[in-house]
Write a structure and sequence with these properties.
Mean pLDDT is about 90; it is low at about 315-320. The protein is about 45% helix and about 15% strand. It has about 350 residues and is an alpha/beta fold. Strands 6-7-8-9-1-10 form a six-stranded parallel beta sheet. The protein has 14 helices and ten strands. It binds iron/sulfur cluster.
């Protein structure tokens, strides 16, 4: 297939692929050829012998949420008896426990609960960062956008206060597939593409970098996948705040949306596509948490250079991940690489 070979050669030469070229690769290239090129590009950008990992604790400060994404079983009605908002003491206890287990970073996310006062976030961020010395990555774009509205502040003003209180980076979450067709199916009350990108741009401009991701395995079309990657690449050209990119697949949490089985080759092809298409993002993360260890290991030979690990608490996804630092190091060594611990912002 000469056209495919030419496109892969173009990527190997460091030339950017257009969206129609990305689409052609996704539709027609064999995953093994994609993985080969993905791995070669990874080796050019990152130390071929090293795979990085990190250690953080996820703290979901509330499970109350009014956004009602069809794939999410985590949200709860604010009025429901099962809804919770963690107290500052509960947050502190979780962070102290994380430190004792070797994690010095916190991923701090809700629910979107507009009844929580701003001071709660400022106190939590300050306690986690200034008192306990943790790096805090927190708040998806929908949380930032809704809280700015609720507190009657501009997004830059809110980010400025959160950063001064201790926020160190943002997860870039809540963008499963950034096309209008998929947003209307999955999360019609989340931010549309332009708004999601605008919030991420403000975060990056405020000195709050982070990651981005794609979640696939519903009834998305190939055009939706490429459209999503293209939106991320365009935003990255503008603000350069995405340190890494993580491909995930949907988990069967609810019966309110269509979910299909994503095969191993399809996941690996996506890892390779991310490495090839996102020529301006330095790191691609493999996930043992969602994909299991066997596929995560193969992902390290398909374009990924980092293990999204290890997470001490995960409420949203069922865990198949690496449960300790030694488990992460052992996994990386057995995969054929030297493990290197990194921070959430990929600092040494
Ligand atoms: S995915 Fe996030 S925003 Fe959507 S319903 Fe669940 S908790 Fe709320």
């Amino acid at each position: 297939m000469p056209k495919i070979a030419a496109l892969l050669e173009k990527a190997l030469q460091g030339e950017r692929l257009s969206s129609s070229e990305g689409l052609l690769l996704w539709n027609e290239a064999h995953w093994t050829r994609m993985a080969e090129v993905g791995h070669a590009l990874r080796n050019r950008k990152q130390d071929p012998g090293t795979v990085s990992y990190t250690a953080y604790r996820l703290i979901n400060y509330t499970n109350a949420c009014d956004v009602d994404c069809s794939f999410c079983s985590f949200q709860d009605e604010v009025a429901s008896s099962r809804a919770y908002v963690l107290s500052l003491d509960e947050i502190r206890a979780k962070a102290v426990e994380a430190k004792s287990l070797g994690a010095d970073q916190i991923l701090f996310q809700g629910g979107v609960h507009v009844g929580i006062p701003k001071q709660y976030y400022l106190d939590a961020l300050s306690m986690l960062h200034h008192e306990l010395g943790m790096h805090v990555r927190g708040f998806s774009p929908i949380e930032i956008s809704r809280y700015a509205q609720t507190f009657k502040m501009s997004i830059p003003a809110l980010l400025g206060e959160f950063k001064a209180a201790g926020l160190g980076s943002v997860p870039g979450a809540g963008a499963e597939i950034l096309t209008e067709r998929m947003r209307l199916k999955l999360s019609p009350r989340k931010l549309p593409l332009e708004d999601w990108c605008a919030v991420m741009g403000e975060c990056h401009r405020a000195g709050l970098p982070g990651s981005a991701n794609i979640v696939f395995g519903s009834d998305e079309l190939p055009e939706d996948l490429i459209g999503h990657l293209d939106a991320i690449r365009t935003q990255q050209d503008l603000t350069q705040g995405f340190k890494s990119f993580v491909p995930w697949i949907f988990q069967p949490q609810t019966k309110r949306f269509f979910i299909r089985h994503v095969t191993g080759p399809e996941y690996l092809k996506m890892v390779a596509l991310c490495r090839i298409y996102l020529d301006n993002i330095a790191h691609i993360e493999a996930s043992a948490l969602v994909m299991g260890k066997d596929l995560a290991e193969l992902a390290l030979y398909s374009g990924a250079d980092d293990m999204n690990s290890y997470v001490i608490e995960e409420n949203v996804l069922r865990s198949k991940g690496l449960s300790s630092e030694s488990a992460a190091q052992k996994f990386i060594r057995e995969a054929g690489f030297s493990p290197k611990r990194r921070s959430l912002n990929f600092d040494e």
